[in-house]
Amino acid sequence: MTDKTRYQLDESDMPTSWYNIIPDLPVAPSPPLHPKTGEPVGPADLAPLFATELLKQEMSGESFIEIPEEVQSVYRTYRPSPLIRAKALEKVLGLPAGVKIFYKYEGVSPAGSHKPNTAIPQAFYNKQEGIKRISTETGAGQWGSAMSIACALYGMECTVYMVGISYDQKPYRRLLMETYGAEVISSPSKRTEAGRHVLGLDPDSLGSLGIAISEAVEDAAGRDDTHYCLGSVLNHVCLHQTIIGEEAILQMELAQAEPDVVVACVGGGSNFAGIAFPYYRRNTQGKSKARLLAVEPKACPTLTAGEYRYDLGDEAGMTPQMLMYTLGHDFVPAGIHAGGLRYHGDSPLVSLLVKEGKAEAVAVHQKACFDAAVMFARSEGILPAPESSHAIRAAIDEALAAREAGQDRTILFNLSGHGHFDLTAYEAYLNGQLQDYDFAAGSMCEGE
Amino acid sequence: MTDKTRYQLDESDMPTSWYNIIPDLPVAPSPPLHPKTGEPVGPADLAPLFATELLKQEMSGESFIEIPEEVQSVYRTYRPSPLIRAKALEKVLGLPAGVKIFYKYEGVSPAGSHKPNTAIPQAFYNKQEGIKRISTETGAGQWGSAMSIACALYGMECTVYMVGISYDQKPYRRLLMETYGAEVISSPSKRTEAGRHVLGLDPDSLGSLGIAISEAVEDAAGRDDTHYCLGSVLNHVCLHQTIIGEEAILQMELAQAEPDVVVACVGGGSNFAGIAFPYYRRNTQGKSKARLLAVEPKACPTLTAGEYRYDLGDEAGMTPQMLMYTLGHDFVPAGIHAGGLRYHGDSPLVSLLVKEGKAEAVAVHQKACFDAAVMFARSEGILPAPESSHAIRAAIDEALAAREAGQDRTILFNLSGHGHFDLTAYEAYLNGQLQDYDFAAGSMCEGE
What we know:
Mean pLDDT of chain A: 94
Low-confidence stretches of chain A: 444-448
Largest interface: A-B, 47 and 47 residues
Number of helices of chain A: 18
Oligomer: homodimer
Radius of gyration of chain A: 20 Å
Largest sheet of chain A: 7 strands, mixed
Shape of chain A: globular
CATH topology of the largest domain in chain A: Rossmann fold
């Protein structure tokens, strides 16, 4: 065990392959099904929307997929990201020497989150296949920002359908995307049939992620020069995020420490997959016995209270059905501030790990998460995104439990992003205006 | 010359001393003078406001001052900061192989700028001397954020007098400080005599940095448990920022490259000092021939159009007179978006270097800076702070001039911060609403 604060890899030590968990799973993943026919969906069905290479990755049997040099070179502007020993937090918590907390920090990317890890290769593969324009959707704006940046870097056009209420309430996120050259459209819009249909029923519709997805997919389907990109849930998205865990393994080796538990928050599942899948491999290889802990909000507890079954990926039924934990595709989570965790389903790969007992899940309340986030900010300095605060809460709870039990424990969590765009959430917390919502108690409400 | 993108130091290679330029200057710096008597001001006069150790550093004759371990350990949560070869920008500019651009990126700090480099040691030395509370002022909020974070990390109280109009117009910056536990007060306030005086004359006063300084100083002078901290201009602030240049020297060695020109923006002068002073030493040692280029806004061209003379550091005459370039302490710069560069004077040490021909200065218009900033964001990915965009503009101009002249040139600039809190400025730029202001043409107006 070394006594450093920060374990920083040189760019020459950045992993050059992503890890594909599929061949190592205890059971084969079930295929997606057509939303209407219920028949398995193959690459040919999805080719109008996605790059061929991404569809290959979606069902690949290769354990490692090489990161193209053109992607590596862009990764290198912000990667390898740091792995930091949370010494100041440990001190504030009064932890004994045997209980240690490390975090991998993805907020150093230009978007301030882990999202560019997949936006960059998605843009690259599409460009390589002659696509000139990407259409996508965004809720609070994290994914739209990442995709806008990636498109700018490869000289592609980008159109982002942004949920109407966020478009109005989050002008800074919209401006960020526009500064990178993206076209940002308030959804529902008059540009698509899906949008016009919704506006016909309700001209004042505030929009939803489901509607925005429908618009972005319709846009891409209607133009040969355009493909669609998605920021979480899918297998190839989880694949790209494994750069996080691959780096973390090297950095924990530098620290001469092996995590007993690896923690990340879960919305669609990609940042959890990113740090946890490489440790799953390490577990199967007998090199580690790390528990893999997914943390979700009690307002949207997909993994802990959902059913494991086929369900649609979106409200409107535009996307295939996937075998996953779900609260039902018509479930509208309460308006918690961690907008990125408000998803009714979950990555099929992450769901399968939980189903098979290879990963654990826990649900936490948002007030307790903001308690943890503020404690973290005032000790470690970094202001976390509300989503990431769920991982911090669970990491602190793991540390305190180990202290109580008199056990040693090494905890590694993924700090997926900074909270510089989320200060209104902190304002609500500081003013005592945060509410907790409990799915189990039947408390739900229209969200942001 | 290596071909990497990112030159990352291990924390064990982080420099452990700051560089003090004073003993190496061609002429001794002139002492500050009392604002009213005009007599030299000594440590005893300033002791009620500043930590003894900081006053020692202000006039130290030592070339290197060791960074205390307690400061190093906090630096290590975000330092060493990366040095990045701007390969994508070089490509967009169509530069020949002999013209290279590197940048040192300080936006990775928890405040998103270089300011914590001095906020952290200032908080530390004050705490060490038994001070429990810091009072300071902030304009747009960069410095107030950094000081709030530093105080949180050392468990000190922090009160920030924030210029009234910014308090109202920049709620996110205020919320950031409050999340770190700082008390943020709209200035002018009723809490101080200075504030009450201003409010008596004009109950609707929007405030100014001068008034906020007066309030913060009065607050500190009136309480034994409180000291005052300043974020730029002073010698000890420049000293702390030299960690930037000391790291850059090591990183440029890794790159097997020596800069022909070192570029940074100048407001009070500390981020320029940070990267340029260590290269000044290298020049005096004959190890380098780097030109040191300070970039300022044409709306506030202190170094290029100011007079070199004694002047007050603030509008109200609360601070000592300093020998520096100045546009006059009653000069109100136009309301450009780079709020951190709107200062009538400049660091006496930076002024002396320019006066003695050891550093150059150039003034640029804000529209041209935003052109450069957007080009940079869309190629390198990082959205720059408006202040930092001045350095980017000058770096690009240096590169293009070298290309025109058919010369080789290696350019190193300091990217002092990210622009995630400055999106309204980008909005104005994208909407074509930016105005250029030219001091030389007599165009000035009340600023933000």
